[in-house]
Amino acid sequence: MSAAESPLGVLIVDDEPLARARLARQLQTIDGCQLLGEAADGESALQQLDSLDPDLLLLDIEMPGENGLQLAAQITARPNPPAIIFCTAHDEFALPAFAVAPSGYLLKPVSVEQLAQAIAQARRLSKPQRQALHTHTPQSEPPPASGRRQIKAVSRRGVQLLDVDDIRCFIAEDKYVIAHHSGGETLLDESLKELEAEFGERFVRVHRNAIVAQDYITGLQKTSDGYRVSLRGVPLEPAVSRRLLGRIKSLLSEMA
């Protein structure tokens, strides 16, 4: 954490004391986090939300009374809501959780590495920016033509948020698409056609099964089986089809 960056105030909401204690211990090892308080149910969480004004909630879903999804819906409807990371033992809530746009969705037992990564992602958006993501009115500005800033992917580890700016390419394999980024590979349940339509200003098609980020293209390589495009930060070199080769050469000339 830089000297100019204030600590991230965190409120833990979970009806299980052992789960709260585990998260509290993990927070102590994550730089830039400050535990403000703990709550065992929704009513107590709302009271502490008003008194403590946390930047982030680590929120369980299954709790007595109002569950975490209902509580999150209330919280995100408020002005300047905190970020929310769901910490739950059940993966079946992932899709309903999308409705309240959490910053993360982690499956118990949560590892400190997963928690640190989710908190780092949540920290990137200010409270006003998060409020803008939850505001959907007829007068709201449409999303930028370049598409989302992050893509959500559901896996056994929970919900992973990928920064689009960090993705080098999308490769279609069978019924799925794989996003290649600085942290490795992530399976997406989105079609290449949909991703190209949304991110066409930043990504360019090089093959029927691949679109690549223009900002990461470093060159074009001639190989025994045709041409491949080199990308900064990943070893993968997607093939370039003959039909699209001229377009890619023109793009590289413009970038030179």
What are the SSEs and their pairings?
Blueprint: E1 8-13, H1 17-28, E2 33-39, H2 42-52, E3 56-59, H3 68-76, E4 83-88, H4 94-97, E5 104-107, H5 112-123, H6 127-134, E6 150-155, E7 158-163, E8 167-173, E9 176-181, E10 184-188, H7 192-199, E11 203-207, E12 210-213, E13 217-223, E14 226-231, E15 239-240, H8 242-255
Parallel strand pairs: 1-2, 1-3, 3-4, 4-5
Antiparallel strand pairs: 5-7, 6-7, 8-9, 8-12, 9-10, 11-12, 13-14, 14-15
Organism: Microbulbifer harenosus
Domain HTH LytTR-type: 151-254
Pfam family, one: Response_reg
Question: What attributes characterize this protein structure?
Answer:
8 helices; 7-stranded mixed sheet; Rossmann fold; 256 residues; 2 domains; 5-stranded antiparallel sheet
**Major β-sheet, in short?**
7 strands, mixed
Strand content: 25-35%
How is the CATH topology of the largest domain named? Answer: Rossmann fold
Count the DSSP helices. 8
What is the helical fraction, as a range of percent?
25-40%
Task: Please name the CATH architecture of the largest domain.
Answer: 3-Layer(aba) Sandwich
Radius of gyration: 21 Å
Q: Extract low-pLDDT stretches.
A: 128-145
When the domains are counted, the total is 2
Number of strands: 15
Strand order of the largest sheet: 2-1-3-4-5-7-6
CATH superfamily of the largest domain: Response regulator
- Principal-axes geometry comes out as elongated
For the residues shown, what is the average pLDDT? 84
- Could you name the CATH class of the largest domain? Alpha Beta
The topology string of helices and strands comes to EHEHEHEHEHHEEEEEHEEEEEH
The structural class is alpha/beta
Region (Disordered): 126-149
Organism: Microbulbifer harenosus
Pfam families: LytTR, Response_reg
Domain HTH LytTR-type: 151-254
